[in-house]
Amino acid sequence: MKKIALRIHLFTIGFLLNLIVPTYLLAQLPIKITNTPTTGSDPYGFVTYKGRLYFSASSSTDGPEIYSTDGTPGGTVLLKNINTLPGKGSEVGSLVIYNDKLYFGATSATGGGLWVTDGTTAGTTLVKDLSSVQFSNPILLAVANNKLFFVDKFSPSGDNKLWISDGTTAGTKLLSEALGGLDVGRGPSSMRAINNRLFYATGNTNDLWVTDGTVAGTHFVKGGEVMDGGFGSRFFNFIGQLTQFEDKLMFRGYDQSKTGDEPWISDGTPEGTYSLDLTPGAGVSLIGTYRYYNGKMYFYFPSAGLWSTDGTQAGSKQVKNVPSAERFTVFNDKLYFVSNTNELWMSDGTEAGTVLVKKLTSGLVSQMIVSGNLLYFSARTSSNNSDLELWRSDGTDAGTWKVSLFSPDATDILGKVKTLVDANGQLYFTAQPTGLSSPELYYLRPNQAPVAPVIANATGTVGQPFFQAIPSFTDPEGLPLFYSVSGLPANLTFSGGGGGIIAGTPTASGIFTITVSARDINGLTTSTTYILSINPAGGSAFALQAPTYNCATGAITFNTSGGDGSPIEYQAAGITNWTTNPYQSVDHDLITANDVQPITLQARQHGVVVTYVWDLKAYCTNPPTPQPPLPGAFTLMAPTYNCSTGAITFNTSGGDGSPIEYQAAGITSWTTNPTRFVDQELRTANDTKPLTLQARQNGKMVSYVWDLRASCSGARLAAEETTTLSVRVLGNPVAGETAAVEISGAAGQSLQFVVSDMQGRQISKDRIEQASVIQKHDVRISRAPGVYLLKVSTPTQTGTARLVRQ
């Protein structure tokens, strides 16, 4: 596939001073999409189709052919070389979308014709060969009433002809032929599709016609011959500016015998076609272009300023007497236009709401479009310079800037902008680089915000010198950035930009959230934060120490030192998510795995995160030797245990008399009640390991390793059953996040409820100390639909039930 030679030009900053217009957008970076050395590719005829921009352009060896682009040089390709004659082009033009395909006129080696493409080379084919019409090339393509209309550029009679097509060869015919020889007027010079009708003005006769592609819907509307014509024998001396006005046509017509040059309205019938005679008599109004906005049509009336009309004589009135008004564009629900006194205006349709936005330097605005969320226009900004420069506006004075476009090696398109194009909310434009005879196509890449690095949390101490280097942000355009830092504690300051230093001697302790920001030269700012902890003088930094761990039970305690006294959270993979409880248990899989890797324990306090890498296997291979308690110290002793019922009482000695809490995996979480029950599974399992009982008092924690199997010495682990435990789900499947269950056969006994999924993961756990004869209880299940297992246990029995969550 042949391509235009491609390269990328990224345009860097240009530092300019201008005493009249001081506001610049200094870093818009256009990508040069086409590149034809010496001559330029001269792109034109733009249309967006299937997310790509299609257009006609020339290469260094061929004339105009059809291309498409995704906005990158590598994604800009020749769709098809239609005219294969050396040095010739197909003169592609008038691209229009019809029935999800793109139709256009082109000239091949044998002559002109109607072509169609689906966006692929193979799908780019000739619909109708018009070579018999003296190399005619279709122009003025338009779609109305689900039909495609076009005009042949040349014909043997020298008069353009109107054609109709359904997208097939057989269905592409002269309109008069398709309608059985019906008179359809002379060749159109302009057309406008409005809803299901096509209005067109005939070129040689200046008549207005309308068609919907049928015999009944095709007829003459206004014009014809007159007997008393002053400058000729036709009713209209001129017809132009065909514009849609809701379901009607508004056009400019020069009725030389009566009203002169005035706005006209037509509903497609002779009686519904009339002049808005703004200048009574056969004078000349010389109105400008029309623009529809908020239910009215707006236009400029010389010597009378900005006007609007609702389509009636009475509803046509002056909005405001402005110097002139042209380049009408609707943006942000307002009507924008420019005057010949080099001013950008905005109107809401009222006199008070028609205001000057910005006074430009001496120069004429050539084109104005909306792209993305901005208004773009090209304008001359020097009375001595006929070239056009690119501007952008957000609709305000302060937000209206000239876009300075500079290349790394030369200002080769500064002031050379030609055509502005919006495609998918992105701005494309053509500009003629210095030394070329025609323009190239560029894509204006949107300015991107700086990218922030990760800044690590830092720690300092009151009275001690502190230094911290701030890493540089990255600007996607590679342009300078301006840095600022906020939230610093007293006596610390930031100096420099990227790679700058925060330095000083802090005078106050605390936890500070520091914000580092970088702003590009267009004003886009990116910020990132980190935590700076300043410890009191003589204090120690927050640190995570080696944990306390029981190799038999998996009980683990996170240990920290230092810090600022605020709450601490703990986390470790395979142990716990973030929690304020330092007492946790290591997952059974980690305890028993032969290849378990060292575990990273984490603790955080006021945003400061510290870590400790702990080797579980090494710890249990050679655990620390426990120190015997001091006389009179707080101590946990052997429990009192009933082998038949599973009732257990924690026993302690010593201490300071303050409240005591108790905990043991498989028995209870932390509680001040020393009498609990051992889980049924632990009492009946043949491989039950020794349990680590724990007690804590006033921050002091002690433990006792207790061998349940040895304590019972083979005694009966379950009492004789007199009543069978029954578990019944009240309403299964379950619609909510809780399930109602009914338990019988457990009167007077404790009940434990455990819900787990089918992979054995525990969902919820609950306990009732003393059950009634018929005990009802709600158990919590997961939000996710599925099947869950409910296990209900007394000291002597276990019952199960399946829960189905809808």
From TrEMBL:
Query: Do you know which SUPFAM superfamilies this protein is assigned to?
Result: Cadherin-like (SSF49313), YWTD domain (SSF63825)
Domain of life from the UniProt record: Bacteria
One GO molecular-function entry: calcium ion binding
User: What's the protein here called?
Assistant: Por secretion system C-terminal sorting domain-containing protein
User: Which terms in the GO cellular component ontology are assigned?
Assistant: membrane
Domain Dystroglycan-type cadherin-like, chain residue ranges per copy: 454-541
Cite the InterPro entries for this sequence: Cadg, Cadherin-like_sf, Ig-like_fold, Secre_tail
Can you name the source organism? Spirosoma endophyticum
- Coiled-coil stretches are none
| Database matches in SMART domains | CADG
**Gene3D superfamilies the UniProt entry points to:** Immunoglobulins
